[in-house]
Amino acid sequence: MTRILLLHGWAGSAKDWKGVQANLPNDLETECPDAGYFGQQKPWSGHRPDLVVGYSLGCLDALGYPDLNGIPWIAVNGFTRFCAGTDFPEGVPVRILQRMRKQLDEDTASTVITFLSSIGASRFLDDSVTYNHKALSAGLTRLLEADRRPAQPALALAGDRDPLVSVAHSRACFGDSAAIIQEGGHRLLHTHPHIVANAIVRIIRS
User: Fold this and answer.
1) CB-based contacts of 108, cutoff 8 Å, min separation 6
2) Termini Cα distance of the chain
3) Which residue ranges form the domains of the chain, and what is each CATH number?
């Protein structure tokens, strides 16, 4: 059976992929590791997949696994570098991440809730959530420091209204090959799960 590895983004969980999974055919097996931002980490099993799909920070995480080298991958609201630099002006200013890290140390819950609200995802949290500060902080560090350029995916999906990763940011990472979804924000896996699922099927069947 064909195996798809699905990697979620910062302040997310394996549950983020439920909508996409529901739109996939039954002959595709999916594995969704969990970074443990809201509890116990569930690491990748190590079983080699046929395709990797990274959402947001999940792209950088996918490219950070040496054992996944050479496997086709899809970026969803993703990037090969997040923060701006002298040779990457399209990225997110470093000061924003540094401020988030300071705020995370002072009030973890408020920082996460504010971030999720900014990308339209606050409704996915409730009062029973446990925040794993160590994992969240480590994720911010990867966003600050990781640079996986010039890695190129089989396909990149981006939203034209993404408040976090601009179209210019996506183009800087993936060039003109990035597919821009109209009316799409930073939650394509929730707002456009059928488009993400169709992209997975198209790449895996090609």
Assistant:
1) 131, 133, 136
2) 16
3) 2-205 (3.40.50.1820)
Residue 99 and residue 109: Cα distance in Å, rounded?
15
Q: Are strands 51-55 and 28-31 parallel, antiparallel or unpaired?
A: unpaired
- Each residue of 18-74: pLDDT tens digit? 999 999 999 999 999 999 999 889 999 999 999 999 999 999 999 999 999 999 999
User: Burial letters for 62-101: b for 16+ Cβ neighbours within 10 Å, e otherwise?
Assistant: bbeeeebeeeebbbbbbbbbbbbeeebebbbeeeebeebb
Residue 175 is classified by DSSP as G
Compute how many other C-beta atoms are within 10 angstroms of the C-beta atom of residue 125.
16
- Show the tokens assigned to 150: 């010039």
What DSSP letter does each residue of 110-159 carry, written as one string? HHHHHHHHHTT-GGG--TT----HHHHHHHHHHHHH-B-TT---SEEEEE
Using alpha carbons only, what angle is made at residue 69 by residues 65 and 75, rounded to the nearest 5 degrees? 80
Q: State whether the Cα torsion 159-82-40-109 is positive or negative.
A: negative
Global model pTM greater than 0.90: yes
